[in-house]
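# step 3/5: fold
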Amino acid sequence: MMMNHDMQLVALRSMFPPRFHGSIFLVGGTVRDSLLGRPGVDVDLAAAVPPQELASLGFRAVTPRSAAPIWFLCPPGLGKVEVTLLDGASSLAEDLARRDFTINAMAMTLGGEIIDPLDGQGALAARLLRPCNPEVFGDDPVRIFRAFRFETEGWRLAPEAEALIRGA
């Protein structure tokens, strides 16, 4: 189900106990699409919430072999909610810096405030794919294919992204 940004925030605030609201952030494509005015289908969160609290709310952990666990829930009307755990709210900037492109490295509080340490909004306005760090493609070569998929949607690779792909 597609939901507009304000409805998502209201639904998420009602889903989580208020004591955790300052530790839960919308991230990645959820924020990008919101800033582009696209309705959300799924919700990506980064949260400093104890795993037992997520479990009590109905989230289920999926633990891949080579990555941190991801917690999932599909509440009616909201779509799939995916939570990546943070060590603390202060580790949000580290989480964002590990992402692929700066357009996907923005966060939003449950109050609607944008957190943008890598100028993803500037890249968004220019429709430019800027890598978050020099290891972006070496850490996950599949991101190269993601870059090409974005290009088919009208995005352009920044020169530094092209150089990293050539060297990957």
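# step 4/5: annotate
DSSP finds eight helices and nine strands in the chain.
# step 5/5: archive (pending)
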